[in-house]
Amino acid sequence: MDKVVALTKRRGFIYPSSEIYGGLSGFYDYGPYGVALKRAIRDLWWRHVVELRDDVVGLESTLIMPSEVWAASGHLTNFVDPLRQCTGRCKKRWRADTVKGDKCPECGSEVYLRPETAQGMFVDFKNVINSTRVRVPFGIAQQGRAFRNEITPGNFVFRVREFELMELEYFVKPNEDDGWFDYWRKERMRWYTDVLGVNASRLRQYDHPKASLSHYSKQTTDIEYEFPFGWGELEGIADRTDFDLRVHQEASKTDLTYLDPETNDRYLPWVIEPAVSVDRIFVTLLIDAYDEDVVNEESRVVLRLHPNVAPVQVAIVPLSKKEDLIKVARDVRSSLQGEFRVEYDQTGGHIGRRYRRQDEIGTPFCITVDFETLNDRAVTIRKRDTTEQERVAIAGLTERLTALVAG
Q1: Within this chain, do residues 272 and 322 fall inside the same structural domain, yes or no?
Q2: Closest Cα partner for 36 from 320, 311, 265?
Q3: Residues 152, 46 within the same domain
């Protein structure tokens, strides 16, 4: 874990937040490669949960919601440490149990930050039904920031106070929840192994006993990963029953029932919820990919990230700074941008040193433009995991890289 944390700062993945002022416990900033990796995670989740399906739509609800929402959902009575932030002048954060009513103790402004994105999807359920053509079973998906007043943040970005959630609320008929719960347990596990390339032997499912279930849950399964500090929750899949729609219907006095167009039955759908933090996927991928080996009698650190999530998929590395090579290298870069996440490295220095840098940030393929390129109009693809090299014509480079990225 210490080696991964050191690498993330050295190579621009993660920095301690406000470090020049001493930092803030439990808060981190994502650097250039960290942002690229997080965006890849978010985009892949959205693509596989929303875009590649015809039964899920997206939503983006506000971070700040009325306190009545959290009272109805049970967060104010069933969870210990909700976090409030002043939206007025002072912007200070407070433990909810230290705030009387909804006023900031410092400046008197109203306060609240959401601990999850789920409630926005429940309170907008009726709007989605009325404005789209969705029919049960269907899902609403959302990505966004959430906040929790973790008393003991730790294990790097595994447990932090400000994080980004990706949640799906999948609405089903009341008597069909068991089947859909099993479906999403399998589907989410498959996504980690097949799409993100996580080592299956370091993943497992943990079924919560009834005594540890949340107040809204009939059944919950965690997808766990074997971290250096032990097995920990990566993602949770919960059968939330009709709890959320029912309590919001009661509290708001608004009919949230669904009229089934096929049976003409009216009911409150039950909900299956896969929910995961982008930050936890982030640290899981780094730990899972971290490796050390020896190449040409030299040790190296390498992140064996799946090409789907690598912050840089292709690095263009001209052999020298000679003008004719640089021109070809830049042309190659231009031809690949938009198709892949591309980085251009002409910093000089030994080519092996530049390869090592790309290995450390997880770049699966380096494209070397050398002096032979000027004669044969071909470049060399150097593969991160094996260090094998392959000569490819520039004209066929995009097609070949597409095949390599796809595996």
Answers
A1: no
A2: 311
A3: yes
